[in-house]
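Below is one record:
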Amino acid sequence: MSIKKFTFGLAVVALALGVAVSAGAQTTDLQTLLADIARLEAQIRMLTGGAPTGGVPMSGATSFTRDLTIGSSGADVTALQTILENGGYLVMPVGVPKGYFGNLTKMALAAWQTANGVTPAYGYFGPVSRAKYNAVCTPAEEEEEAAEEEEIEVKKVIAETIWHEFAHHFGMNENEVRLRERKRETE
């Protein structure tokens, strides 16, 4: 089951149980519900081997240089919204362009903050949130280097395994295999 389906199911159950009682309480209850959903999603990601703190590895990590809040706009807001979307915290309505920090972004950011231990989780992207973002998001170059190193190690293991299987298939003992490996390494 996908996290989005799980989140949708939780939201439906919560609404069916009448989480929001009055118009004034709806906003608070919705924020609480989103924060609870974010915590559950983070736990699911931890249990399924995903990103452990609610952060997802970011391709082309963004460097944020200013505080973002209701009314902010620009490329950095668009980048934040994309990060929140990729993490499953924000779903932009069809036809609504990115780039403006409104209530949806504020609630999604508050859920991300809660999932990542940023307090208070008010949906304000200031120095504390930027520091947490920098701590949990991996720049693309580091991801690519790590993936390349892992791929090289896997290839080495595969080559070694094939060599051993080949050698044993033709009746070489361990000493002969090691001698040939040393000779191969020096060539």
Q: What stands out?
A: Confidence is low (pLDDT under 50) at residues 15-24, 49-60. DSSP finds seven helices and no strands in the chain. The CA atoms of residues 70 and 103 lie 7 Å apart.
